[in-house]
Amino acid sequence: MDMRNLWKLLGLAGLVGVAAGGALVVRDQRRRNSYTPDEVRARLHQRLAESGTGN
User: Would you say which domain of life the source belongs to (predicted)?
Assistant: First the structure.
């Protein structure tokens, strides 16, 4: 394998990594956006109560 093909392969692997990372970010953002503000508030209150440090 000559150096040119090696660099092409490394560049392609980098692009695949960036695309996979971007897909994970989009999926996480979509999951975060699926909650209404009331659901977020209820989840936070539930987590606070479970931690035992609530008022």
Answer: Bacteria
